[in-house]
Design brief:
By secondary structure, the protein is α+β, with helices and mostly antiparallel strands. Helices cover 18% and strands 41% of the residues. The protein is built from two helices and ten strands; from the N terminus they run βββββαββββαβ.
Length: 177
């Protein structure tokens, strides 16, 4: 069951499953991030306020954010599978996102085997504030430490992400001051 979740003190809202766990309840999360964890897997959703990247083309900008995520994850490899322009029904109150679907191969904790992680990324550009608002979902498909998603779970996670990406609203642009 999804409900409208307030992010960043209500400055942003998005439809997210009610059972997601707010990571800030048990670990330090930067002020520029909201992090939610699925209770029955290692899937996570992160909404992050970032400085705009240099690319003016939004698909290219989404690719730059995907590359930065791969760098932060120390990914061995990365592949962009699809990039889409998505519309929302905000009547212009919130920018329409560009959504990227990709895969990264990530070796964690000096383990021998690498994990396959499917990444979903939505980019909302706020040019008047020089901000890229990025929502990403990490879906581990293979991992030595469990918590992996089946193809069925992947499909359900993608539906959750698509709904969240279409429903995200920037309510208070003062967040980006």
């Amino acid at each position: 069951m999804s409900g409208l979740r307030e992010l960043f003190g209500g400055a942003i809202t998005a439809a997210l499953p009610a059972n997601l766990i707010d990571a800030s309840d048990f670990r330090q999360v930067p002020d520029t991030q909201e992090v939610f964890l699925f209770p029955d897997s290692s899937i996570s959703i992160i909404v992050e306020v970032l400085e705009s990247v240099s690319a003016t083309d939004l698909r290219e900008a989404a690719g730059q954010h995907f590359d930065a995520l791969a760098h932060d994850n120390d990914a061995r490899s990365q592949t962009v599978n699809e990039t889409l322009d998505v519309t929302n029904d905000s009547a212009g109150a919130t920018p329409h996102p560009v959504v990227l679907y990709g895969t990264q191969t990530v070796q964690k904790f000096n383990r021998e085997a690498a994990d396959e992680v499917r990444i979903l990324l939505a980019l909302y550009r706020v040019p008047q504030k020089n901000v890229d608002l990025v929502m990403s979902m990490n879906v581990p498909m293979t991992s030595e430490d469990g918590g992996v998603a089946s193809e069925e779970t992947w499909g359900a996670a993608r539906n959750v992400f698509d709904r969240a990406a279409r429903s995200l609203r920037i309510v208070d642009y003062g967040l980006f001051a």
